[in-house]
Known about the structure:
homodimer, DNA Polymerase III, Chain A, domain 2, twelve-stranded antiparallel beta sheet
Amino acid sequence: MDFEIEKRDFLKGLSLIQSITARKTTLPILTHVLMEVDSDSLFLVGTDLEIGIREALPAKVHEGGKASVSAKKLYEVVRELSEEKVHIQKKENHWITLRCGKSVFNIAGLDPEEFPALPTYQEESFSQVSVPLLLEMIEKTVFAATNEESRYHLNGVLFLQKKEAGREILKMVATDGHRLSLIGREGQTIQGIEKGVIIPKKGVTEIKKILADKEPEERVGLYFDPTHGFLKIGKSLMVIRLIDGEFPDYEQVIPKQNDKRLTVDKEKFYACLRRVSTMASERVEGVKLSIKPESIECSSYNQDFGDARDEVEATYGGPSVEIGFNSRYLMEALNVIDTEEVVLHLKDEGSPGLIRPSSPVEPPDQLCIIMPMRI
Amino acid sequence: MDFEIEKRDFLKGLSLIQSITARKTTLPILTHVLMEVDSDSLFLVGTDLEIGIREALPAKVHEGGKASVSAKKLYEVVRELSEEKVHIQKKENHWITLRCGKSVFNIAGLDPEEFPALPTYQEESFSQVSVPLLLEMIEKTVFAATNEESRYHLNGVLFLQKKEAGREILKMVATDGHRLSLIGREGQTIQGIEKGVIIPKKGVTEIKKILADKEPEERVGLYFDPTHGFLKIGKSLMVIRLIDGEFPDYEQVIPKQNDKRLTVDKEKFYACLRRVSTMASERVEGVKLSIKPESIECSSYNQDFGDARDEVEATYGGPSVEIGFNSRYLMEALNVIDTEEVVLHLKDEGSPGLIRPSSPVEPPDQLCIIMPMRI
Lengths: 375, 375
C-alpha cells in the first residue's frame, strides 16, 4: 500500500469516522480505521458493529493494499500536519509510515484482515431521498426519543411509508413514553418500510452529521433490509443496524377528543415558559398552565427557591382549564414547529395535550403529544 | 428594600458573582448574593471566604435595605427576563418579589445579617495600576502555577516589587516545581509587596475576568495587607485572601551557565512540537530535542501507537546536544512570548532549559525555565 492524499480530504474523512469508531471495547480493532486502497481511491472504514461507515476519498495511488491503525491517533496526527501532500506507505508488521513535509510518523497497526466486514447491500434497491427533507424530518422527531438505552425500542426513530387517504406519506415518529413527536411528508417514498423500521438514535445523529454539509438539492440513497439501513452518498456508505423491537401503536396514542383549542404566539409562549421554568423543581420541571379566555398563565413552584408566574396572550373561546406539563417537553415541542403560531388541543387536566402548527392539515403532517402531570 | 434596576446592569453584576459564590458548602449563605441598597446604588456581594466581590450598580431606589437570595437562582431568573425594567421589593421572612413586565417571581431568602462581612481596607493605601499591564503579567505567568491545591504555596502567582540595578521593577512569578515563568516590568510600582505576596490561582483568574472588559487606558487600585489583596475598580471591590506560605527562591533556580544558545522561529517551533507531541506518551508528554548546527530535530515515541520526528530550522553554533522536555510545558512557554523568535539557553541533557524572547534585556524581563526529562 502506497498512496498520496490531500490533507484536507483525509482530515474530513477521518473526522467523520471519529464518532463511529468504538472507544471502549474489548475488541481493539474496533478502535481502528481500515484504509483500503484501490486504483484511484482510498476507502476509510470505521465501525462499532452498530454503525459502520465507508468513505471514498480521491487519492494518488502508487500501490493498492490495506492497513488498519488507531482512528483517534491517525486523526490527531493528520490534524496537526503543516502541508497538504500526505504520503502513506505500509511497512512490515502492519505498521504504516506517514510523511508530510519534514514530518515522519511511524504508526502501529493491526492485521487489516481482522477488520469486520460491513453488511452487503443491493445496489439497485436504493430509493433516492432529498437531503433537506430527511434532515427536517429527523430534527423534528429525534428529540422525543428516549435516551435510556435499556428501553431499546424507544431509543430510536420510526421510519414508515404509509398510504393515507390515497396519498403516499413518509412518516417519522419518536417517543419516550412521556411525549411523542410525529411528522409526515408527501411526495417522497422509501421502498421496503411499509411495516416501519426503527433507526437507533445514535444512527440518526450520525445521518444528520454526514448530511450536514451537503447541498440542499442533493439526494442520497436510502435502503433497508430486515436488519440494516443503508445510506449512500456518492461513493460513501453508512450502514446502521436497526432496532429489533416493536414500536408503540402511535395512532392509538393521538388524542381525538381534545376539543379545547387555543392559539398562541410560539416565540412568546416559549419565552414565557423559559422564564417560569427557572423556578420549576429541577427534578420534575413542571409548569402549570391556567388557560383563560384571552391568555395562558404559566406558573411554577420550587420548594427551595420560591415561585414564579407569567402570562402570554392567547386566542381561546372555551371554559377555563388548568393543566400541568413538563416545561422542557413543551419547549422542545415548540422548538420544532415552524409556524408563527401554534395550536394547543386540550381535553382536561388528566388527558394528554396536543401541539400542532397553526395551519393544521388532516391527517396531521406534524404533531407533538405530551402527557400531563400533577403540579 | 425597594428598588428598580436595568436588567442589563443587573445581569452583568450577577454574572461576575457566579464563579465566586460557593457551590458546595456547609454554609448555605455562601451560595447567596447579598443585595445592599443605599440611596442611589445597589451593591451586590458574593464570597466563598477565599475571594469576595462587592459591585456597585446604578439603581433607582425607593427604599434602602438588605436581602440575601441564591446567587445562582437569581442569575437564572434575571437571564430570562424579557424587559429592561426590573423591580425588586423585600417581603416578610427574608423573601423578595421580583417583577418585570408580566413576570412575577417570589424568591426565598436568608437573613442578610448572617452574610459574612468582607475584610476592611484603607482607602488611601491603593496603588494605581494599568489594566493592560496587570493583564499581561498575569497571563504570562499564571499558566505555570500548579493546579494541585495541596501544594498550596505553588498554587498561585508571586507578586513582588523589587529594586534591581537602581530600577523599580514589578515582578510576577509562578511555578509548579517542573517549570517556572517570570515577568518583570518597569514603571509601575505597587506599595507594600517588597517581600512578595502569593495570590491564589483562582483569585488571579477572577482578576483577569473582572478586568477583561475594561478599557486599555483604565487604571485599577491594588492594595495588599498582610492577609488580603484588594482590587478596586470604580465603586466595585474584589478581595482575595493571600496564600500564607513560602514561595521558592526563584532567583536561585534561574540557570546562569546555560551557554548553548540557539534562536528559533517561535511559530514554526510551536507547530513542530504540536505535530510531534501527538505521538508522545499521554502520561509524560515527552519530546526529545536534538540540537544540531542548523536545526532542532524533535522526536517522540509512544509504546502503543508508534513514533514521530520532525525538524525546524534554528540558528546555533555550538556542539550537538540532545535533551528531553515535556512538550506541553515547551508549548505553553512559547505561547506567552510575543517576539517572532525565541532563544533557548541550554547546558546539557541533565540541566534545566531556559526560554527567553529573542531580544533579551538584563536582568531578564521575561523567562521560562523548564526541567529536563529523560526520554
